[in-house]
Amino acid sequence: MSSRSWKKKVASDRIQSRLEEVKSVIVKDYVRDTNLNNLPTSTAYRVSGVHIYVDILNLEEMLGTTNVEGETCHRRTLRFLNLHYRAVARILSDIDAIQVDFHNQRLHAVITKPYGNEQERIHRGVALSQLIIDVLKETVEQTDDKLPPAVVRAGIDSGMALAVNNGRRGHREPLFLGRPANLAAKRAGGGEEPGIFMTNSARTIIGLRKVLDEDKSSLSLSEIRASQEKAKLTTTASNVLKSWREDLHANPIGKFTFSSHTPPFSTLDLEKLSPRNSRRQDALSLYADIDRFTDYVTENIDNIENSKDVVRCLHVLRSELHEVLTKDFQGIKVRFIGDCIHGALVEGTAGNTDTQETIETALLCAGALRSSFDLAKNILVKNDIDCNLGLAIGIEYGPISLTRLGIKGEMVRCCISRGVLTSEKEQLRCTGTQTAIGAVAYRNSPQWITEWFDETRIKSGITYQSASEKKNSSQKPQNPNTLLRSATAASTGTSSGLAFSDKPGGPVKPAGFA
Predict the structure, then answer these.
(1) pTM for the whole thing?
(2) Which of 280, 396, 440, 476 matches a 20 to 30 Å C-alpha distance to 419?
(3) pLDDT tens for each residue of 63-77
(4) Residue ranges with strand state E in 121-168
């Protein structure tokens, strides 16, 4: 492994430069037909809207259809997501909703119209959610290996959020921060029961009774129908499906063809990926979430000057997390998801991932992320920008696939695997001072890591200095490549499923299924 390290002076200089970029911030109130795409870094809008999160509940089931996590389950899952993404993107375009993010199984959309009428927007949000549910039940293909329909759960809330730029250098899209986005996401992720789940505050606005448990009380059929009648959407499920099928015929989904990338991931250009040019290899997935940021936005959004500090804080913290991941430790940022960064790291060669070195790099990176985060907070406070925030980090190892979904000109990044789902779950276990490591990564870690973590696989206060000192004081194992098997063995199901060849992998049946 080439040098992967963190230096306080380098980080401090970067943070000071990022802070200078947002020395002057403009916060405006959203008005009719404001274009939120390609917002300048130093500009934000306060937007009153209805936030909808839609989760596809059976993604984990799709990834678990084979005992070995090989190309077959990844290829089927990516095709499954691609079919659904193209249908949902068409729905949002037809009814003039803002597509904020489509991250694997999770969609975030915002409705801002009709302006000045929150009740009608909420009814529209319910009607949109049901339309997505109805369409995704039917977006399946009649193939030799029929994909199942999506099982969908939607969450809805309404209120004021802060819209800022999400992304850097050519990968920019609007990001909405604040309580309505957070609560809609929590309702969508609040259980395994499909349906539409709405916060009590949104229920009250449209005259519905409050419920004791928002995560267990979906909207009734009569409540949904009442909203559909009031929303009067101009498109129907049958119209969407007709257009979707015509689009698939004109622009068929390419076969997902995999090859591995020569480490590190920092040299991989995600914007050049496509179904026919996808990557797949053993690697590590990392989620780092800024803890308490939603409360921070809520506490400050009503005051323009305080909102400016929110923009400064977010820009500085996210930029530095990005630099640590991609520059200091040569990983790749898959995307920002609200105030969370999702990334991936790999060490070794294109043909063979060095399992222990990859996990070791990831834990050092996690420590560096926290060291930079704490340093940035101190610098922000010295500049009279209050930010009492934390950082929760989760990591997991396994085979991952990286690609982009959609059609040319409208493609979104996608990174899927069982490990990706687990790394997010590990992050959710953490408080703002903790780092958690997944079971697979823990079992295959260097000795200094397994000795450092107990059976809970979670630890507080890991910094770059503490991780480096622990590593340096421990004897490194002699044989770090114990997890890997040959690509041929992986394809026949005789290995752990965590390794494969540095060769393009193609389907052996029509329609992209192996």
Answers:
(1) 0.89
(2) 476
(3) 998 889 999 999 999
(4) 152-166
